Amino acid sequence: MRGKPLILLSVGLCLGPTVIVAGQPSLVIKAGKIWTAAGDAVANGVVVVEQGKIRAVGTGVLAPEGAKVLDLPDKYVMPGLVDAHCHLGLSLDVLGEMEETVSAVTPEMRILDAYNPLAREVTRALQSGVTTALLAPGYGSPIAGQMVVVKLVDRRNDASIVNPSAGIKFSLGAEALMPDRRPTSLAGLIALLKEEMDKAKTYDPKSMDPRAEILNRVVNGQLPVHLYCSTVDEILAAVELIDAYKLKAVLVGAREADELANVIAERGLPVVYMPVLLLSRDKDLKRVGTLAGAGGKVAFASFGPKTDSSDLRTSAIVAVKYGMARETALQAITIHAAEILGVAQRLGSIEPGKDADLVILSGDPLELTSRVEIVIVNGNIVYQREQK
Amino acid sequence: MRNCALRLTSLSLLLAASVAYSQEETIAIKAGEILTISGAPVRAGVILIRGGKIADLGADVVIPPDARIMDASNAVVMPGLVDASAIAPVRGDRNEQSNEMTPSLRISSGLDPQSKTLKRILQNGCTTLCVMPGGENLIGGLGVVVKTVGPLSNINEMILKEDAGLKIVMGSDATVGNRIPRQEPPTDFYFRRPTTTMAVAWMLRKCFFDAQQYAASAREEDADLKVIAAALKGVIPIRVNVRRAIDIRTALRIADEYRFRLVLDECTEGYKVADELAKKEVPVVLGPFYYYPTGSSQYDEGREVNWNNAGLLVRAGVKVAIASNGQDESIGLLTAAAFAVRHGMPRAEALRSITLVPAQILRVADRVGSLEKGKDADLLILSGDPLAVTSRIQRVILNGKTVYQMD
Prior knowledge:
The complex is a heterodimer. Chain A is of the alpha/beta class.
């Protein structure tokens, strides 16, 4: 799919005059409201889907003859949700499967090898409207392994890959420190990471060391690094590394990111914020509201199965309650998440040429009472809520 | 060295034996029905056995005057069963646990010809079995194909084929025994990779990569890498024990990356990927059928059992063998095949799955697996339909000799 050119049409976003769309659209969705994540929401609009791609969106787009029409005047359409950090589809005891903690540095581990697209929680995530997710190794290894961005569909575990080079996961959290293995302290952890990256800088391709080869791509800025860090000291340590090695970096977790707003803003660092439901204190919940002011783009994540995938939308809702702008909160689970994961050219918003990944809700997505009614991926209806 | 000396002795014994055979009598079995497996069944036929081999068989075979006649005119005759994955007869641990990868370990060195289980296996009609190393190491070692009864004094005469398969384990079995820090202090050799599915994939890739490098260079002798390199070239069949569909796919992907052919063992969720297996012509050795731990067991990977796994795989065009895999030995392969038929496997395929197909997978089909002229005279005489629960095995003949007879 990646090699296929996008269907570029002059039709574009049609507001106003009636335009007849050429070709054979496979699906036409008429909805009460369409939030595209690319401009103002469209009331009483139409989305035309053809060959798995969005062909047109707007008002007054005429449904061509022969197309399947979903007429949903009281429903709300938005782009498929993007979970910016989770661990879905890892069967077995989750703690045992997420990372290879026998050694602290395991860049060679690939989460894709452990991902089971047939797992129940993957289907459940899809039913919550999450169509794309970043799968990452866990928190217990300073260099945990390679991540991947997948669509949560397709019955083959390698057919649904959107971004195979999503990056490497580093963990600077307390979880990565163990009493009986190096490192046992944050300072020791940073020293270890620096050692590894210094080694990787002078990597000789002839030595055929796949671990050094991967880290070499990291220090050359070819491969992004997602650094898990939670508290102020951990975030500062992460920033130290990012500055020292000019890393293409994303902060993950970042509970106290609001306290370092200027540090993050200066560098324009994107933040994948932890699941809001894991925050218990009111003090922490208030941080979420001020987060967007921290500088870089913000995305939310479920860390699933640590929280349920349906809580991805809940994170956005709670953030709005504590002061985040509505638009920003919705972007954090769609287009901004897609941009941070490097997949925004294909998904994250409803725009002509992008993948037809759509969620149809019973009402405003930022209302707790709104339900996911229909989920569409690549133009196919993959979930439809049973009417009871 | 011990093996070497034994082999020389056995060679001379074999020579002596073949001389003895040539003067031996001819046995003629008059059978009510002969299930040849390789061809159509023969009604009221005769099988001639000479020198431990099948000399002739068919409906119109002339019985030589000097032949000893064995009357089975009310009985069904079929080939001795072939179990492509068995644990007996090895006493104690079949895993060398001090290391995660023991490719050059030969399970044949641990064979116990006096094993009591051998007799039980024989009573269940199994005349050939492939003994594989245990499933706790990522790479367990080399299996061996044996006849269930040789002259008990000599192991080497039991052995039909050495280095018959390289045992690789993917999925939880390779990881559960290994410990991770934080839970216990690292005081023993069980603190090692792999503890996750990710590491299983990585370690296999690394090992295959190293073996290819080894094969391409003239490095000093390395017994383990030599075995892996031979397996990658196809000299030794690669047997991957795998249960979940996800692990099956990972196995297929790695096989594509390193361009080797493989046989999948156990393959509980094979039905989910039947088309892919058929397309890639990957044979499977199913079983055990009667042992599915469920609940919170550490071995329970959340796999989904379909009782018609065998039938669905066959329908898709996959070559299916049914084996005991150690667990069903007391129940017997005939019962396992009957179970598969009950849930949807065609009868003819079920009979093939415990005879000719496993023989082909083990690369010993020139000797065993069907009743054909020139093949070993390994056969079962049954009181009725082999798949009927009321039928009994009346007699087992191995290399032309009666090795079991019903009381």
